[in-house]
Amino acid sequence: MPRLPIILVPLIVVHAALSYPALTQPQVQNLPIIDVHLHALDVEALRRQGANPITRNPASGSVEENVRRTLAEMKKHNVVLGVVGGSAEEVERFLAAGPERIWGSAAFGRPELNLDSLRARHSSGSLAAIGEVLTQYEGLSPSDSSFAPYWELAEKLDIPVAVHTGLSFPGITQMGYPNFRVALGSPIHFEGMLNRHPKLRVNMMHAGFPFLAETTGILYLYPQVYADIGGISWVLPRDEFYAYLRNLIRAGFEDRIMFGSDQMSWPETIGLAISAIQSADFLTQQQKRNILYNNAARFLKLSPARIARHHQQ
Fold this sequence. Notes:
The chain is of the alpha/beta class and 313 residues long. It has one domain: Metal-dependent hydrolases (TIM Barrel, Alpha-Beta Barrel), CATH 3.20.20.140. Helix content is 39%, strand content 13%. The longest helix has 15 residues, at 285-299. It starts with 12 loop residues before the first helix and ends with a helix. Residues 1-28 have low confidence and may be disordered.
């Protein structure tokens, strides 16, 4: 399996670094938040990280530091649950350090993960989801037959899957992923998968940006699909992100958009992503709560008892 890349730094990242507004965060209500888009990186991946493109802060210097700082940021902002994707070994580090806040997920690109190992991880309680699945990085559609065994397993286990959509690093085809194609980031490629696996719960990661029309179409026709705003909420210029989010809200999807930070090696991005939602004056308080907690609680099928505990913390 290839090394997992940093998942999303769109082509406008340089513009974002120059034009992003002051990163002051408003007072955040002490209400629970669910982050459905976190990453567990190994030491090699951390070493490849540069400075945060927005804050210019350096990446975490070690796996231990990244885990510790991520969990500290989650606690600071009352992120009561985070879905962390990565290899089994790296996800286990998060589970060991913060079992009450972490759900483990299996991230991969090529369809080479052993299905029996995934079943075993699920049985042990260390696997609650499958994703981020990076089909686009391999030049493949999520509807390609090679991924069908994973979708079948997720249906059988009744666990959600999360699939990368949208963009990546400028120059990604020269960075070890020659088969990456922009067109394959369109959610329109979900249709074969969704029709062959109608019980599959799918998180459209990065909310399909910049494919607004296709994202709207998939969300409209397939109610089992939700969309997270991982990465785009803090990497994009604020006006661009708000324009995209406003269009999804206007189209009637306020109950299908989920919060995700896409935290990889810069734990402060959790706070930046939360601030982007809290500062959106076109969202009602109820819409903010839906995005920050309620929609993910429904998508993840949290029990009423667990939801009640989250609101008592």
